[in-house]
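Repro:
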Amino acid sequence: MLTNADITIYNVFYDSEQDKDIYQRTTIKGVHFEENKAVRLDKGLVTDDKVLICIPFLAEASRMYVDPMMFDKMSVKEGYFTLKEGDRIVKGIQDYEVQRSMKELDEQFEAFTITNVDTCDYGSVFMRHWEVGCK
């Protein structure tokens, strides 16, 4: 797979001990990033921007991947990340820590929201990847 970018994923989850949402940042090096900007005129002027990110299973990540159901059940999430709808992705390696809400990302960066994730776990180990759709 040809890679052209690095990304930072922001997972959000509720921590009952701290009684607040936690925004966990994970960096991944070596992904394929495609951004398509489009405008639809069939229902008036509507932007239809989309992003497709292909993340190789072998990509270098700062945390280990677990599926969303497992991530939600884990009591300790440190050291792990997931790819689930609603979480946010920023292109590039970012060291920004979200404190209050994901809206902070929009103030600092062009942040994308994950809309779907497909696991492509077939073929050789070098071809296996996640296809992440974002808006």
